[in-house]
Design goal:
Blueprint lengths: L4 H27 L8 H24 L9 H22 L3 H24 L7 H4 L1
Helix pairs in contact: 1-2, 1-3, 1-4, 3-4
Length: 133
């Protein structure tokens, strides 16, 4: 499967960008008071993208050597993913007030951005790694 590493990583990266972009678009729509962001076709598209993303991530996990994850960056990324999903559900539908949805939306986007930095730097500090090292 190592022969397909580059292709799997590309699918993973595209799915990451599509997932984040679709969430941002839907979140903006929800905050604007629109109903289309919660329509079934967009929800199913989101599920499909996220399933592809998770599948590619699991494939990459089986390919990469165990030593690559020694400093905890992958563990942090998985914890941040759970935080991102919870915040996203509050931003899109579970938040009872517009203020809760807005705060959850911004927090979810910041979490998403931090996850990107952690993944890019392969370090738990993410983009802050260069500041402290």
């Amino acid at each position: 499967m190592i022969a397909f590493y580059a292709q799997i990583k590309l699918v993973h990266l595209i799915a990451v960008l599509l997932s984040g972009s679709l969430f941002a678009l839907r979140g903006i729509g929800v905050l604007a008071g629109q109903r289309w962001p919660l329509a079934a076709p967009l929800r199913y598209l989101s599920y499909s993208i996220d399933t592809t993303l998770l599948t590619a991530a699991l494939m990459l996990l089986t390919i990469l050597p165990a030593g690559m994850f020694a400093n905890g960056w992958l563990t942090l990324k998985l914890v941040l993913l759970v935080v991102y999903v919870v915040l996203g559900t509050f931003a899109l539908k579970r938040g009872r007030t517009q203020r809760v949805r807005a705060i959850s939306f911004v927090a979810a986007l910041l979490t998403y951005g931090y996850m990107l930095g952690v993944a890019r730097m392969h370090h738990p500090l993410g983009v802050f790694y260069s500041w402290f090292m």
